[in-house]
Design a protein that fits this description.
There is one protein chain. Helix content is about 25%, strand content about 20%. With about 350 residues, the chain is an alpha+beta fold. The protein has a single domain, classed as Jelly Rolls (Sandwich). The strands form three sheets. It has an eight-stranded mixed beta sheet with strand order 2-3-11-8-13-6-5-4. Helix 3 packs across helix 5. About 40% of the residues are buried. It binds N-oxalylglycine and nickel (II) ion. Nickel (II) ion binds next to loops.
Length: about 350
Amino acid sequence: MAPAYDPTSPFKGVKDLVDHNVLSLPSAYIKPFEKRHNPEEVFEGIDLPCVDLQSKTAMEDIKFACEEWGFFELINHGVPEDVIEDMVKNTHTFFNLSTTEKMKYFSEDVFNPMRFCTSLTPSKESYLDWHDHLQHWFKCDNLNNHPYPNIPIHYREVTKNYVKNMQILGKRLLMVMSKALGLHENKLQETYGNEEMIVRLNYYPPCPDPERALGLNPHSDSGGITILWQDQVGGLQIQKERKWYNVRCNSNALIVNVGDQVEIITNGIFKSVIHRAIVNRNLYRMSMASFFNPCAQATITPIQELLDKQNPAQYKARLSKDYIGDIYNKYIEGKNVKRED
Ligand code: OGA
Ligand code: NI
């Protein structure tokens, strides 16, 4: 006889709970009152800047968005629709595999090149997030010898194609952002060194008690820039001037946001922003985040050309990998990077 299912065990993920018809929210997922999301305190109609990457004003628009918002919608981004669609199908198939199949890839080690996990690092957290994810950590040249799941069969090809497109887009964004800062177009890329990309495929199953749970705790992204695809369900919220706003879904757009390391490199001119994901009672939601990051060994420090007497360096130099490690190992909620006093 199969062992009795233990609904309090968080490690197999939330999709597994839902597959076992868990009808009330297990206590591990109940957020303390002050951390819950209050629908009455969320604002609609946020005017998130929308940047058309092919327009003549793309550079100024990106400059404004990164300085004022840290987040923007990106249209005409050049990633072919079928590349995204194939990746979405791939991701969907993966999360619908049996728990046993997915658990073959389970790991809590954030530096693992491929890992399936739930919440962030469940063994270290007091309250778990209502989502599962599959995460790949690509060094720039390891697309071929990187590990991929065996199922679905086209996973490897489809993912490689998606990542290549995201790398091209990431590089293009860095160029535009460099020029927007008044720097040589290769400047940000140079500070990145051999860039890396973490692709995090997020799956948020329907949640029996969405008001007491969260899909992702409030956080800022610890990398360079994030390029997010989200489906039409909605759930991403950003914080601006202490208020929460829903990010609208636009099927033609990708969402781009500044991560902590670009905030540091630009000495705070571009800002990383706190965001979170809420969950839904009836619908599952998927998102795919591509974190376009500096080389793990790169020293992250403000660019000299952006500093002068009036604008001294606001952040200490640290290795890129330490920022990424922090968010997992110390489980920092809220903003992960602070200016020096
Ligand atoms: C993330 C993230 C948002 C979303 O993966 O860091 O913020 O909507 N995702 O899934
Ligand atoms: Ni994020």
